[in-house]
Amino acid sequence: MILNVIKIFLPTILCFMIGIALTPSFTNFMYKRKLWRKNARAINETITNTDFTKIHNTDAEISTPRVGGILIWLSVVVTIALIWLISKVVPSDLTAKLDFYSRSQTLVPLASLLLGSFIGLIDDMIEINGRKFAKEYDTEIRFRYIKIALIVVLGVLIGAWFYLKIGMTGISIPFTMLHLPLGVLFIPFFVFILVAVFSGGVIDGMDGLAGGVLAIIFAGYVAIAFGKEMVDIAALCGVVSGGILAFLWFNVPPARFYMGETGMMGLLVLLTVVAFLTDTVLLLPLIAFPLVVSGASSSIQIISYKYFGKRRVFKIAPLHHHFHALGWSKEKVVMRYWIVSIICVIAGVVIALIS
Fold it and tell me: What is the pLDDT of residues 294-315, one digit of tens each?
């Protein structure tokens, strides 16, 4: 038991320290290469210019690097590689125990993180170098559809792995002994959940908001995986939390860099995979509640505007921007989202472990 606890917390702390150590050189590189938007984002039809200027600091958008998410997955990879290397160079029962890279539990989640991050990095680099958002909003929308298509393809591949390789054909229903069989429909169900989780990526809109919420969610999955005796997955989630906290150290206002799609997409794909591996998919709406309300509020706003006489349900979507437009400070919005996330994660962990 003690070794399992050490196996989780030691790599978590190590990843945080590696992330902090990598940041100065990484930051210099991003600023030297000017890895930020060259044009401020366009104002879409569902918001007004007044609302937009209230919540968006366009000067910061075109002077702050947006690929800071690299720091998260790079810290995770370096931590895993370092622990694996130590276990091979200094073989012992202790070093072997600390090595949580395993084919059975962490290979696919890690690969999912990297594949999602790579797709997000391509998106970030196109935004940095390839498009003029202020003049080509339609182009932005078309590329968003391409991103969703890539996520769907990735979801099919991962879902097929779950179905064909480990024989996962259904999901458990909380508070019951029932197991909902899906058969081959498991694959499109996985894709649906992945796209739904991906829609929550719009939460990345305020300094410290996405990083804090995601660190809390993955910390929750440390407890869930540990309680289900999936120690390698618990260690991976802990390391991811450590990497996010290192990022968050420099992302609190004023942010030195933004997470970007290379951070959000990788983490959201990983979150989906971990939820399925721990059989807590139906608890995701609770555990990841801030992501859910962010994605849902954007969808509600778009549907209401397009199909109900250009009516706006919120002053501006996603929901965190609505609160800011109402007069809440960004710091108040972020801290309250963190508090709500902690409460929801605790509730989700309890339900996952007793049901």
Answer: 999 999 999 999 888 889 999 9
